Input
Amino acid sequence: MNDIPEITGPALGPADGSVPRQLVIFLHGYGADGNDLIGLAPYFAEILPRAHFISPNAPFPCEAGPFGYQWFALTERTEEEMLSGARMAEPIINNFIDGQLAAHGLSDGQLALIGFSQGTMMSLFAGLRRRGQMAGILGYSGRLVGRDVLDAEISSRPPVVLINGDQDPLIPPSQQPEAMEALKSAGVPVEGHIRPGLGHSIDEAGIEIGRVFLSKIFKAEPLA
Output
């Protein structure tokens, strides 16, 4: 019997009406829901017209308020709490990924994860531990959970792009070089961008960085 919670959320595409050639999964931040990131899909669909985009709601109601969802609790925000939470959420995300790939007849190599904040934590945690190597991971306003165990647990090394704001009050920009050092040490190709004047958010430049990254990893033909 499968006791793993099922998750779902808003979806979009492919923009050209064809059968999906790529799958892009958004993982939202703490206290948000799938609608928070699916609005980015049209921007990425311009360069990935054959991609199916989906942004599932996290499996648990957010403990901090009456609305939104969380991938795991953040009552103390310690490394130990986040590592334990990431381990708990990982099979839920992998189950969702497996179901989406099977539904569209795609493989890990045709998959990209895009995360924001806690969703970036989970994109990195789950993505680097999948046996099949996905096309890439794009992380906004996030950090790497489980740095000390990464070398022992990593299963695949997809390219990663991290984008953080230098005015982020929730995830200090100092988290990015720490994450990059750990990822590089584990053999993961990683590129980092610190956006000046940006808080805990995504700006136009960050979207464009993401578009270039997705186009590169999928070698995509944009919409005419």
About this structure: The helical segments are 35-38, 41-45, 79-104, 118-127, 147-153, 175-185, 204-218. Residues 11-218 form a domain with the Rossmann fold fold (CATH 3.40.50.1820). The first strand starts at residue 11 and ends at 12.
